[in-house]
User: Which sequence fits this backbone?
């Protein structure tokens, strides 16, 4: 089976990172919730969306090292690879931030993947040549189709419901905070593995 996997919020867990970085910069009060959604909501409620955009640039760039792999992501991907599945990482994010320091997001993500054992070791689940960073959502969906993915794991429903998402590809929605689990949804990497095998 050919399996595609998203990066941000699917392999890389940013829980608390947006909050910590925003607090370190003194951009939000302490009482703002710690989730990415709560931090974003605060900036929007304060009519400071450009600040939110800048914060994303900082977190996905020079502060990406604060992100941690989701529990069991690495071991699950290694197991899938050992079972003979072909794995591709297919992400979409701009190469550089819209606002702030010009840091290459794609290179920052590759460095994170290497540092956390997803690339660059003899038993790593991904080869460097199996990493695809796309600038737009449309490019990402086209890449999923070009790679002939049989399954794709993503935290964004808009990827899996995109009009050009391949019909023969099983979409698995990864959402650790999900309360009610539907078919083809997972809250952790063990559930992802069981949906794929």
Assistant:
């Amino acid at each position: 089976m050919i399996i595609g996997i998203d990066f941000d919020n699917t392999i890389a867990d940013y829980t608390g990172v947006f909050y910590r970085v925003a607090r370190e910069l003194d951009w939000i009060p302490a009482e703002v919730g710690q989730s990415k959604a709560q931090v974003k909501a605060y900036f929007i409620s304060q009519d400071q969306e450009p600040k939110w955009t800048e914060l994303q640039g900082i977190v996905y760039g020079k502060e990406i090292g604060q992100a941690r792999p989701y529990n069991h992501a690495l071991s699950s991907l290694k197991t899938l690879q050992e079972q003979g599945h072909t794995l591709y990482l297919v992400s979409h994010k701009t190469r550089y931030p819209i606002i702030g320091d010009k840091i290459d997001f794609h290179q920052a993500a590759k460095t994170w993947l290497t540092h956390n054992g997803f690339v660059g070791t003899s038993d790593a689940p991904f080869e460097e040549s199996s990493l695809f960073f796309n600038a737009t959502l449309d490019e990402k969906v086209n890449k999923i189709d070009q790679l002939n993915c049989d399954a794709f794991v993503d935290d964004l429903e808009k990827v899996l419901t995109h009009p050009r998402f391949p019909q023969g590809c099983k979409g698995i929605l990864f959402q650790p905070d999900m309360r009610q689990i539907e078919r083809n949804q997972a809250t952790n990497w063990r559930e992802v593995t069981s949906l794929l095998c």
Remarks:
- Residues 17-65 form one domain.
- The radius of gyration is 17 Å.
- DSSP finds eight helices and eight strands in the chain.
